[in-house]
Amino acid sequence: MLDSFEILTTSGVVLWSKSYAPVKDGLINGFIKDVFIEETVPGGNLANEASATQNPSYKKEKYTLRWTSVKDLGLIFVAVYQSLLHLTWIDQLLDNVRVIFTDLYGDQLRKPHTSVVECDFGDYFEQQRRELEGSASFNEQDDRNLVAGEDLSVTSTPDTSRPSTPGGQVLSGSQYPKGTSRRARKAASNIQNVASSGDETKSKTKKDTKKRMRRWDDTGAAGEDDGETLDYSTQRNGTTDKNEITSLAQESECCRGKVLTKADLEKPMRGMEEHLLKKNVAREAAVRLCESVERELIGVRTGNFECTVASLSFTLHLCLTNIACSAIEATVRTSLSNSLRQLLTPTTSLDILRAITSITQPPRTPFAVKRRPYVISIVGVNGVGKSTNLSKLAFFLLQNKFSLLVAACDTFRSGAVEQLRVHARNLKELSDREHLGKVELYERGYGKDAANIAKDAISYADTQGFDVVLIDTAGRRHNDTRLMSSLEKFAQFAKPDKILMVGEALVGTDSVAQARAFDTAFGRGRRLDGFIISKCDTVGEMVGTLVSMVHATGIPVVFLGVGQHYGDLRTLVSPVIVTEAYIVMLTVDRTYHGL
Questions:
Q1: What is the CATH number of domain 352-564?
Q2: What is the pTM of this model?
Q3: Which class is domain 2-142?
Q4: Beta strand 14-19 with 530-534: parallel, antiparallel or unpaired?
């Protein structure tokens, strides 16, 4: 049954359409986008006088779309039907409609500046559809009759050849009761052949060893010579396969309470480690996580069926991927989830807004400290997005009505000061338009000492009454001792309240060495305060970098960069969910303080 037929132009104008059943909105739009705009379907090119059989099918959800086109007129003919149906006449219908429509309305479409085309095409289309559908139905009925009767007409032979066999006899349909097995039918057939042989010379019939093809009719029943039962779930000769009994016993044992041993955990631990490595988790972190989970589970008794019911999301994913779900695997997944959640949950407060307020607006007590600006420094290796994430953080603080001073302390890279100047100008325009906070750039050009510039910027911010000072630093390789040594002087001069390292989600397992090098570069008693993981929108589920960095240093993740706009900065709220057999997933809060 045809669901819909559309005639439209390449510009998206529908010239004529016919619908026989409701079709999901956007199906044709998705077809145009995938085939002609993004060209994700190979062979989807417009052509003249090309048959529909030469074009690839477009399948989406439960529908199949067949199509043809006329390039000169910019026309596309699309037929939509359900994929369960096998409509062999659709391509012929498309070709016929294409020819008729272009003959009738081609002149109108070729006229310049044509805005209205009168299309009274319904009668022509219905005539073609009825003829092709009726012809196809007639041919299919003939095929079904041929399969059911198998055309067992016996050619008439001379009387002397078969004196006991009637000539011209026609056998049609099944002469055996429904449900008769193949062996019973063969036995009855052999008896009939022997009885009807007459005075012919008896000869031993050679057994046909060639495999015969099973035939099915439209009702789903097998053909005449195919009565073998296909239900293999019943017992064979009153016995059950020994392997079946063993498998069922093992499954039953796994689903009941079981005290886990090292041997029981060996295979799940190996699979868990492999999946963590595939998600960009460093081998060192993956091995230690697996070891900690193994130590925790040895000697633990697994739950019964409620263990897997409690982890409904795990069971659902495993059923979709045809992975057997047992109590041992469910226990391992739960333990891994708890370990990762404990690893990524910070042990100190990450509320930067509260920390800024406590410094810029100290309580009025006799022992209160003097008001001063809150200093945040951004560090990291080259090219991870320090200046970009500094601008995102500045926009976040501006939304909360803080006044900012951005210090350009990257005096080495060409264009670093100009980049911050552009960001400061854009943020200032946003602040003026949205009535946000105040932002200003502090710069001293190139070739100067970064530590002295940071110190001067903090003094300037204190005298001018700024709330926050954001310090941008030069990128440096973590294995370059000379460049890393200057960070200790920087920390002594600037005395930042927060030092945030920007790590790249794409870096992979090298993130462990980077995090450790920067964590120990600021001198004795001064460490990193948090990580900003950039470019998280480019890696999908490959989020192992943040697990590796946190595991190596114990420093929490403060922000995640998820795009190129100023508002694309998120916080890590629900750390880890283990699904699909130990795949690490993250839930990110996208409504953090107005972002």
A1: 3.40.50.300
A2: 0.53
A3: alpha beta
A4: unpaired
